[in-house]
Prior knowledge:
The protein is of the alpha/beta class. The chain is built from six helices and nine strands. Strand 6, helix 6 (151-155) and strand 7 form a beta-alpha-beta unit. Its main location: cytoplasm.
Amino acid sequence: MNPLADKLADYVNFSPIIYKAFSEIDRKFFVPIGLEKHAYNITPLPLADNSTISSPLTIAKMTILLEPENVDKVLEIGSGSGYQAAILSKIVRRVFTVERICPLVKEAKQKFEKLRLFNINIKCDDGRNGWREFAPYERILFSAATDEIPKELFAQLDENGFILAPINKENKQIITRFYKNGKKEEIEKCEFVPLKKGIIL
């Protein structure tokens, strides 16, 4: 049994489809070996190269703020363990996710295959490049904090879409929505690992 969806519902206002996604995707499958007993805690857990699998509460908030229902394509920057992409795969038609740590990409691919999540596409690359081949995207989600959004990613954004990202601002991070027309909307404080350059083979 996966008790996390009910636990998270005490903190956030889930729509039925997002609640169902969190019920169907078991976080235990995505945490590192040896940390399974912590899978249902509302805490981040360590991954390779000082990366983390975010707190499930953070994942829940970002998923809700992304407004993914009735969306065709989402691009995620920073796949990590693959947990966020797996959640989104139950809500949107196609998920594209980019991770700079190649061993994490290999592990995530294996997890997606075992769970038969065939609408997720993942690759190892510097996330700041996005994934131009399949653009435009209705939503672009950053799962790592950045000082600014690369112009390349605005170029890959659908005219009516938005980018959701943790932005570094005055010694804190703020979840912010960016629109194609230049508008932006600051939402709330958050805590993410930093977006890094390059790839790790």
